[in-house]
Amino acid sequence: MAIKSLVTHVEIDIAGKAHNFQASAKHRIEKGDVRLKVRNSRSWDHYCLNCAKKIIERDIKKLKAIQDRLTAVSQP
Ligand SMILES: [Zn+2]
Would you say residue 19 has pLDDT above 60? Predict the structure, then answer.
């Protein structure tokens, strides 16, 4: 059985055209910008680089915390 990954819903791509991110015009994505794609039900949410870095940083902390808990419970 393949080992399941927790990060199957994330991709990086390059915006084909400029667009605003959801409600916030401050997070405008220009054509050619790298953006983070996050699967959301049947479509994708796109995040600008700054948001992407924050999201990834936060999730790494989250995963680290889970790893720490698993390590703690598996100690003899
Ligand atoms: Zn953003």
Answer: yes
